[in-house]
Specification:
Strand content: 25-35%
CATH architecture of the largest domain: 3-Layer(aba) Sandwich
Number of domains: 2
Radius of gyration: 18 Å
Distance between the termini: 34 Å
Number of helices: 8
Number of strands: 11
Strand order of the largest sheet: 3-2-1-4-5-11-10
CATH class of the largest domain: Alpha Beta
Structural class: alpha/beta
Largest sheet: 7 strands, mixed
Helix content: 25-40%
Length: 258
């Protein structure tokens, strides 16, 4: 899928993205705490190269790190900056493709690419290009943190949908209004790529307003992604599972090699 359509997917989702969480502020803090424990140093220079509306970036800024956020979606990156400012945090953001990061070599202690963002890249060539850029902007022995869906399990079952999530709209807590979110997955013939339809049902004057957004992912298995990271110059690659990290997705943890 062309990068313009991925950017459009997240541009259209940016205003409503927080509604997929039961409590976005709680998720910001929980994810920031989990990633901070893996970074293992104070006031690290962190690049979140798929920052979205700021869930991980703001969480890490709350932990005292010096965070820069980039995202393919200009609208999402702009919202991340606004949300950080609303919390009196410093977060520089820019619209950028993770395959072409607009930073000099060796600028960051840690690069984060979370929330299943890397699998929007649909070929080994594109994934390698993104990983090589992440390696380039890291200082020697810098840390890489990538989270994806648990694709080894998903490739066995190839689910057709996700269960509906029903959350109260926090801005409308007194009215009891809720939002419903679910996904339909349409697997390609190769068994690895899938088209995702993201459904969001929002209350509107006693009825439901339905928003549908579409994008494509590559269900990239853990061994394959670790191998691509090693080819891009990373060492000590290993997967850390949610039950040990407290992060909601599996995390590939690696170090910038020599």
């Amino acid at each position: 899928m062309p990068e313009t359509s991925v950017a459009q997917f997240y541009d259209e989702l940016a205003d409503d993205y927080h509604l997929i969480y039961a409590d976005w502020d709680t998720s910001i803090r929980r994810q920031g705490d989990a990633l901070d424990a893996l970074i293992g140093q104070d006031r690290a220079a962190v690049l979140d190269c798929s920052c979205g509306i700021g869930t991980q970036a703001i969480g890490l800024a709350l932990r005292g790190h010096r965070v820069t956020g980039t995202d393919l979606s200009p609208r999402a990156a702009a919202r991340a900056a606004r949300e950080a400012a609303r919390r009196s945090l410093s977060l520089r953001t820019a619209a950028a493709d993770m395959r072409h990061l607009p930073f000099p070599d060796g600028q960051f202690d840690t690069v984060v690419c979370a929330d299943n963002s890397l699998p929007h890249l649909l070929t080994e060539q594109d994934v390698h290009a993104a990983l090589a850029e992440m390696r380039r902007v890291l200082r020697p022995d810098g840390h890489l943190l990538i989270s994806t869906r648990p694709y080894d399990d998903l490739l066995r079952d190839r689910p057709a949908s996700t269960p509906p999530q029903v959350h109260r709209i926090t801005d409308c807590a007194d009215s009891g209004e809720r939002t419903v979110t679910f996904q339909l997955w349409h697997w390609h013939d190769d068994g690895e790529h899938y088209d995702l339809e993201h459904f969001q049902l929002l209350p509107a004057g006693g009825e439901w307003r339905v928003k549908v957004r579409r994008t494509t992912y590559w269900a990239l298995g853990q061994d394959r992604l670790a191998s691509l990271a090693a080819e891009a110059g990373f060492a000590d690659t290993r997967w850390r599972m949610p039950q040990e990290t407290g992060f909601f997705q599996p995390l590939l943890v690696a170090r910038a090699g020599e």
